[in-house]
Amino acid sequence: MRTKNYNIRTAGQANIPVLGLGTWQSTGQDCVDVVKKALEMGYEHIDTAQAYGNEKEVGEGIKQSGVARDKFFLTTKIFPDDMKFEPEKLKAAAKKSLKDLDVEYVDLLLLHWPDDRVPLSETIPALCELQKQGLTRHIGVSNFNIDHIIEAKKYADVPIVVNQVEFHPFIKQDTLQAFLNNHHILLEAYSPLARGDVFDNDIIKEIADKHNVTPAQISLAWILSDKHRVAIPKTSNPDHLQGNLDAVGVELSAEELEKIGSLASSNGRKIEHPDYSPEWDD
Ligand SMILES: NC(=O)c1ccc[n+]([C@@H]2O[C@H](COP(=O)([O-])OP(=O)(O)OC[C@H]3O[C@@H](n4cnc5c(N)ncnc54)[C@H](OP(=O)(O)O)[C@@H]3O)[C@@H](O)[C@H]2O)c1
């Protein structure tokens, strides 16, 4: 990793830069360009997934940036589609990701969604084996509820370092967060800008004006005010990259943190989840 002090969160042996670039819906040349620019300007963390269909473009952006592989944290995810969670298919899928990304390893390999068709007793050991083989430095999960994580941990002989879930000011994840904290698993916030909804909230706008920053930065600063979280805002717009990264330096008062924290309604999910989503904790 570069030693630039833009904050690292640690879980297991993983040191994860707190703010990464999300790439869902970044496609084609825009994806290549934004990944390249992000790495050039100092982003140290990129998030992609097989399901995003952009691993080749992410890989091309990495290559064009000229930034060495060991200088940034790279995550991809395996989708349950086509029973890829079957151990052998899962391993083949991981290898295909590395090939498309044109890298020797990723830093974090996630199961993108739980999949009741294939038991975690099969998929988690396969994931652990990929880590031991060096294809990924660390493993984690995404969209897992507490029960899934309890089950997954039974079969993991390496740490599960992350659960990547929806998180932003309009959703409560208190129960899940407390559980993850107890188990030294970071909450990785996806859709941290509520896909743009934070821009229209009066309280967030008012606090942003006071700090002379953007609502995006306030949402990210609020998420990152808790040392057990990382965030991966997506942008395909190079003009938004620097501001999002600079959110790491925005400090909110206790009163502001509480005001933003009170925006969430219980179970107030903002993002449409697929019908195979699990029962969420609240
Ligand atoms: N594990 C999962 O199941 C899962 C699910 C969803 C997402 N994710 C990951 O999380 C990442 C982020 O989540 P997301 O894409 O759902 O939503 P998000 O990051 O909350 O919001 C992205 C939206 O905000 C806009 N935006 C970003 N920065 C901005 C800025 N500074 N000013 C104005 N607009 C800005 C983007 O448009 P522009 O591109 O025009 O800037 C885009 O429309 C994804 O890309 C993906 O990597 C994971």
Automatic annotation (TrEMBL):
Catalytic activity, as annotated: hydroxyacetone + NADP(+) = methylglyoxal + NADPH + H(+)
Source organism, top-level taxon: Bacteria
InterPro entries per record: AKR, Aldo/ket_reductase_CS, NAD(P)_OxRdtase_dom_sf, NADP_OxRdtase_dom
Gene Ontology MF terms in the entry: oxidoreductase activity, acting on the CH-OH group of donors, NAD or NADP as acceptor
Domain NADP-dependent oxidoreductase, chain residue ranges per copy: 19-263
Binding residues for substrate: 112
Short name of any one Pfam family annotated for the protein: Aldo_ket_red
Site, as annotated: Lowers pKa of active site Tyr: 77
UniProt-annotated stretches for the region Disordered: 263-282
Keywords, ordered alphabetically: NADP, Oxidoreductase
Active site: 52
Family: Belongs to the aldo/keto reductase family.
Name of this chain's protein: 2,5-didehydrogluconate reductase
Organism per entry: Psychrobacter pacificensis
